[in-house]
Amino acid sequence: MGKDCGNHGDDDIRQACRRLLTILFGLALIVAIIALIVYLVLRPTHPRFFLQDATLRQLDLSNSSTSGVLSTALQVTVASRNPNDRVGVYYDRLDVYASYKYQQITLAASLPPVYQGHGDVDVWSPSISNIIAIPLFKPKFDNYRQKRAPMALPNEWLGWPN
Description:
single chain, 162 residues, alpha+beta, 2 domains, five-stranded antiparallel beta sheet, two-stranded antiparallel sheet, 2 helices, elongated
């Protein structure tokens, strides 16, 4: 018999670590392949939201010594379409509010939770307003005052980009 050098225990630990890493890598690869297959089969896309109608019910702009106060009330009709063929969407929280020049001018109105099946269109008609008037900084207030010409409701009032 030959002599024992005493280092054979270290080789067993290395082999066990290699086996464990190989198993973990194999499991990660299997999970990634399954996720890729699910994505390719379902092809999920984001729902589309559309502003169908907006009615301005109140727009009051008052002046104070340091700032202006803007009071607004809107009735809007918003639609959502789910373009997915195989995926439904559950909305547990939806908020609608109006903004102008990236400043929120109404309080957020919460829409009820709803499940939207594949290819479905849902329509909501919330009233959005600000119960407490929103104070505007003096430069913005003067800017609103100067733009008091005949009014068309721009998209940016409703939080939509130009």
